Structures are given as C-alpha cells and as structure tokens.
Amino acid sequence: MGSALTTIGLPVALGIIMFGLGLTLTPRDFARVARHPKAVIVALICQVVVLPALCFALVVLFRLPPVLAVGMLLLAASPGGTTANLYSHLFRGDVALNISLTAINSVLAVFTLPLITNLAIAYFLPGDDSLGLQLAKVLEVFVIVLGPVVLGMLVRWWKPSFADRMDRPVRIASVVILVVVIAGAIASNLDLLLENAGRLAGVTVVFCVLSLTVGYVVPRLLRVDRRQSIASSFEIGIHNATLAIVIAQTVIGSVEMSLPAAVYGVLMFFVALAFGFLIRGRGASEATDAATAEALTDDAAMDGAADTTRSDAPRER
C-alpha cells in the first residue's frame, strides 16, 4: 500500500494545504453565495452532477480497468483545490467567488465524494467488500477534508494578523512537503505508474479539458458574468488530486486507485494553463467585437440623426 512516506506524509501534506485554505476563509466567504446565487448554483450543479456523469461516460468509452475507473470517479468527485484560485487570479477571474466555491465544495464533498465513490465501486467492482467508504471511513474523509479547514478558520478568527503572516509560509511549506511526498510516492510505485500512465494520460487530459470547458461554457450560456464564468471554469476544472490520492491510498487502501489522480495532478497544470490563454484570447476577441458593434451602432445613430436634420430643414423655393 505504499511506503510510510506516502501513508503518513500525504495526509500531513493535505492537512497543511487544507489548514492554509482555512487561514484564508471567513464566514463572509460562505455568505457571499447570497450575492451571487446564480453563479454558485450553476457551478455546483456542474461540479456535483454534470462532471461525474461525463467522467462515467469517459471511463466507459476508454474501457478503463475497474479499479482505474473507480479512481477516475473518485477524482471527479473531489472538490476544487486552492490552485484554482491562483489560475483564476492569473486569468482575471472572480477570485472571491473561487474562494466561496472552494469553501462550499469542501463541505459538500464530505457527503458527495463518498456517495459517488461508493456508487462507482458498486458498478465497476460489484461484490468487492474490501473496498468502499463505510461510515467509519466517511468520518475519516470528514476529518481529512474539514478538520484542518475549520482549524485554520478558527486561527484566523482568533488571531487574524497571525493568520495573515502565516499564509505565505504555510503555502510554501505545503508545496515543499507535497513535492517531496509525491516524489516518494512515484519512486515507490514507479513500475505500477509507468505500466498505467499510457492508458491514463489520454482520459485524464480529455477529462480536464471537458471539466474546464463545462465550467466556462455552461455559465456563459446561462448569462453568468464572464469573470465569474472564468472562476467557475478553474474551480470545476482543477480538482484536488492530492485529496483523491490520500483517500484512495490511506482511506480505501488502494494504490492503483490513486493512479488517475497522480497522472491528472501532473498534466492538469499544463492543460489549465493552455485553457487560460485560450479563454483570455477569446475574451479579447469578444471585447473587440463588442467595441466594433458599439461603434457601428453609434455611427448608425449619427447617420440617422443627420438624415433627420436634413429632412427637417426648410426647403428652398
């Protein structure tokens, strides 16, 4: 089931990451939903309903082995990570909405992640009682996901200045520990990873592209503001692969089930970066088209006014 570095180090790394998230959250981030209900509801429906359905279709289409198929559904059920906030900031999304969505998704994941994972296990691995998230394991998910977040929020409420000072060091520490732990996990399971990397690369890239696209296009079709749509895109498209790896390896007890998240966690950065430049270019094009349309409208209005002036002028006899 992996080395002590992964079984102990991964939960510690995830705990630091989620604690760092809690340091940035306040009750206002949850209350902000009331100000942008449409954007939040659309994003949550995409995250909880649309993405698992798309992921299920993909694993069937790519004919993944059952354990890897369950690993993909576990990844799809994982909420967005703090990396989504960074990408949203880089590409001018509504970062405040990202923070709110991350906070709400982290709470919902305690219920939706075990439900989706158990349904996937029941479908792809029927009769395998050794895998699954029973009540005791669901409580582990609760502790892993929400415990450090709540602790971080309490620290921010008690000592806001301390929370502000600790934000950057905690981020740096989480990245360093995560890199070390993931490197150790790859080294200890290199043969298994190389054996499955080829079949997982295609499905994880397609899943990432679809996640980002759904997160951007669906809100835009429903007339959600562009900045909020960008935030939704990265929140839905950038899943918390570390959480999926931890649950697969330490809660469920399957290294193989964690492979989709491991492959996705590497490729996702490049896919999300390319997608960000794509929608930024599209945004510039939309702005140009809007400016052109506005100019044409103004010209038409001026021409109409001139024609009216000429028609109203007294005629010479």
Q: Specify Rg, calculated over alpha carbons.
A: 24 Å
Strand content: under 5%
Q: Characterize the main sheet.
A: none
Principal-axes geometry comes out as globular
Number of helices: 12
Structure, explained:
- This protein is mainly α.
- It is built from 12 helices and no strands.
- Helix 1 crosses helix 7 and helix 7 runs antiparallel to helix 8.
- It starts with a helix and ends in a 5-residue tail after the last helix.
Give structural attributes.
single chain, about 325 residues, mainly alpha, 12 helices, about 85% helix, globular
Report a brief summary of the structure.
The protein has 12 helices and no strands. With 317 residues, the protein is an all-alpha fold. Helix 1 packs across helix 11 and helix 9 (190-221) packs parallel to helix 12.
List the helices and strands and how they pair.
Elements: H1 4-24, H2 27-31, H3 37-61, H4 66-77, H5 83-90, H6 95-124, H7 135-158, H8 160-188, H9 190-221, H10 226-237, H11 241-252, H12 259-312
Helix pairs in contact: 1-7, 1-8, 1-11, 3-4, 3-6, 3-9, 3-10, 4-6, 5-10, 6-7, 6-10, 7-8, 7-11, 9-10, 9-12, 11-12
